[in-house]
Write a structure and sequence with these properties.
Helices cover 40% and strands 15% of the residues. It is an alpha/beta fold and 262 residues long. The chain folds into two domains: 3-165, Type I PLP-dependent aspartate aminotransferase-like (Major domain) (Aspartate Aminotransferase, domain 2), CATH 3.40.640; 168-260, Aspartate Aminotransferase, domain 1 (Alpha-Beta Complex), CATH 3.90.1150.
């Protein structure tokens, strides 16, 4: 089996960007894209490609997260059609929980990918999974310059231990909720159609309608000009952030929005 069903952002390698400029056309034939929370699309591809789907990879959380029963449905479809269920936890791992979003939402993948927060900025990533799946693939060829990078391994172990000892997950959720609540109050007070979407550890500012998209851009530009790095991408918090940091962001957010409206 060679075909993959994918959902979400999984990086920039050719199989993740079928149809983009510079990507060979064969990847379009092997990589089938579906929308998040849409089981019907997955089932349609499975039925149209019987015995050809090797795996289904889904980003763990997008926007407002999984609808009730979504990942149970993915698990069922993978089992029914003999495909491997892969969960992309690169963004959510060690943020939603030490066990990732799969621990938070009760997701049961065959394989999962982790990176980013796991190493606190060092370039590390891992693939983990069921022994029954991984043991059969020890013949898979992988090579990289930094495969034996002990520094990144040490960073990962230290980061995970620190998150455990200092209750780092709860800290990120707590500060993220303060930031979400504060921004929501600012937007409501100004009667603008901007909203904070997502989860405290993975949230972003979005326009309620496309008519307000330009205001969001001006608001974010105002924040950046005031030394607050925020983009349209979901934010990430860490143990290094404090309540004082959140207060400062909210203070500057009020000024940025005021300028954006003038």
């Amino acid at each position: 089996r060679e075909k993959i069903i994918r959902c979400g952002y999984h990086g920039w390698h050719p199989w993740t960007q079928p149809g983009r400029t510079g990507i060979p056309g064969c990847y379009r034939d092997l990589t089938l894209e579906v929308d998040y929370n849409d089981l019907d699309q997955i089932e349609t591809h499975l039925k149209r490609n019987p015995g050809q789907i090797a795996g289904i990879i889904v980003e763990a959380v997008r926007d407002h997260g999984p609808q009730r029963g979504y990942f149970d449905g993915v698990r069922h479809l993978c089992d029914e059609h003999g495909a491997v269920f892969i969960l992309d936890e690169v963004k959510t791992g060690f943020r939603f929980a030490l066990g990732g979003a799969q621990a938070t939402f009760g997701i049961e993948p065959d394989l999962a990918t982790f990176g980013k927060a796991m190493c606190n900025g060092y370039p590390g990533s891992v693939v983990v999974g069921r022994r029954s799946v991984m043991a059969g693939r020890i013949d898979t060829y992988l090579a990289a310059t930094f495969h034996a990078d002990a520094l990144t391994i040490a960073a990962a172990l230290t980061t995970i231990r620190t998150l455990e000892e200092q209750d780092g997950i709860a800290h990120q959720w707590r500060l993220g909720q303060r930031l979400m609540d504060g921004l929501t109050r600012i937007f409501t007070s100004a009667s603008v159609e901007l909203e904070v979407v997502g989860f405290p550890v993975l949230a972003s500012v979005a326009p309620s309608t496309t008519d307000w998209a330009r205001l969001r851009v001006r608001f974010i530009e105002g924040l950046i000009a005031r030394g607050v790095y925020m983009t349209t991408h979901p934010w990430f918090l860490s143990l290094a952030h404090t309540n004082a940091d959140i207060d400062l962001v909210l203070e500057r957010a009020e000024l940025a929005l005021k300028d954006a409206l003038t």
